[in-house]
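Researcher: Structure prediction, please.
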Amino acid sequence: MAFEGQNILPAIRSMKELERALAFPYEYLVLLDTHVGQVKPIVELMRSQGKKALLHVDLIEGLKNDEAAAEFLCQQVKPAGLVSTRASVVAKTKQNGLIAIQRLFLLDTNAVEKGYKLLERSAPDYIEVMPGVLPFMIEEVRARTGIPVIAGGLIRSAADVERAIEAGAEAVTTSNAALWKTFAAGTRGERD
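Model: Predicted structure follows.
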């Protein structure tokens, strides 16, 4: 089962948010907006607390989001996986045996069609569709690619999370700590 059955993937933007997230029962956490010098100590802290880090490569300040960066992160930092918009980063992540998540921005039909072509080449383990509040697009992306989908972006309520899951998303990324709490009540982050 994807992410050990965890419906919510808390998205962390600061050390204060990380401290809050570590108190929840979620095993997988997404690390956004960090500095290259902080990445390894943060991942080690997460690991020491029984958490698995999914690093958003494109948002690590001081690190170019390319194959060399992915290789460095995979071999030196050793997170559970990497998130990126770049196919080369996704491919390098897969080569290293980590979870590879490619973000797909649902801006317009042209962007989505280009995204499908890119996804054919990169073949990620998961696709994060953004924004994640479009259930019909979650269904379409999952059906068209055959790749599991994560929903993210503009997730503001428990109903948004539930609609995304019902549409076929494996999990939902959110930086909304109130939603972390709402869905942490059940087993493995599932809502009661």
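Model: The longest strand covers residues 99-105.
Researcher: Thanks, that helps.
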